[in-house]
């Protein structure tokens, strides 16, 4: 029995020393998730910032200009969520959950269509509001990005 108590005490001590935590109102420790702080990487031009109040998002993309055959990749925090997406006049949507903090969404132009630049109209719905913005990218490697601040 003493051996089990010793193991539990050591495990608790290790957890408290290695995990971020905060003292809750009842005197117990709660684990605290660190806030995301994703930075827009080089190779992307920051084109603006939006703030959302819920991390459960519906993100939609459409051609913002003349429908001319623009093809893009959509990335969030460096991970590709839509690849070789041909932009049309209709929204093409997907869901993504983001943690509290700072994130980014970007596009890479795979084809600018018949008119430059590649223009993607992006809408982000957090179940309370829908925010719309335009991202521009060129096939020569100038990619567009927006910062998304999540305040939960």
Encode the helix/strand succession as letters. HEEEEEEEEEEEE
Beta content comes to over 45%
Shape verdict? globular
Note the gap between the termini: 44 Å
> What's the CATH topology name of the largest domain?
Immunoglobulin-like
Radius of gyration: 21 Å
Mean pLDDT: 87
Q: Return the CATH class of the largest domain.
A: Mainly Beta
| Main sheet characteristics | 6 strands, mixed
Describe, in plain words, how this protein is organized in 3D.
Strand 1 and strand 2 form a beta hairpin. The strands form three sheets. Strands 3, 4, 6, 7, 9 and 12 form a six-stranded mixed β-sheet that branches. Strands 8-5-10-11 form a four-stranded antiparallel β-sheet, with no helix packed on it. A two-stranded antiparallel ribbon has the order 1-2. The protein has two domains: 2-31; 36-150, Immunoglobulin-like. The chain contains one helix and twelve strands, in the order αββββββββββββ. By secondary structure, the chain is mainly β. 11% of the residues lie in helices and 54% in strands. The radius of gyration is 21 Å and the shape is globular. Mean pLDDT is 87; it is low at 21-26.
Question: Which helices and strands, and how do they pair?
Answer:
Layout lengths: L1 H17 L2 E3 L5 E3 L4 E2 L6 E9 L3 E8 L6 E7 L2 E8 L5 E6 L3 E12 L5 E8 L4 E8 L5 E8 L2
Parallel strand pairs: 3-9, 4-12
Antiparallel strand pairs: 1-2, 5-8, 5-10, 6-7, 6-9, 9-12, 10-11
Short account of what is shown:
Helix content is 11%, strand content 54%. Strands 3, 4, 6, 7, 9 and 12 form a six-stranded mixed β-sheet that branches. It has a four-stranded antiparallel β-sheet with strand order 8-5-10-11, with no helix packed on it.
């Amino acid at each position: 029995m003493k051996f089990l108590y010793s193991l539990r005490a050591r495990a608790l001590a290790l957890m408290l020393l290695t995990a971020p935590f905060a003292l809750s109102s009842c005197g117990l420790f709660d684990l605290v998730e660190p806030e995301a702080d994703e930075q827009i990487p080089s190779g992307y031009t920051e084109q603006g910032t939006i703030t959302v109040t819920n991390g459960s998002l519906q993100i939609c993309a459409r051609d913002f200009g003349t429908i001319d055959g623009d093809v893009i990749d959509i990335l969030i925090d460096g991970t590709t969520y839509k690849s070789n997406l041909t932009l049309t006049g209709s929204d093409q949507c997907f869901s993504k959950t983001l943690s509290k903090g700072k994130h980014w969404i970007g596009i890479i132009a795979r084809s600018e269509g018949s008119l430059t630049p590649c223009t993607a109209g992006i809408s982000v719905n957090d179940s309370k509001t829908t925010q719309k913005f335009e991202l521009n990218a060129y096939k020569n490697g100038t990619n567009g990005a927006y910062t998304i601040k999540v305040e939960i």
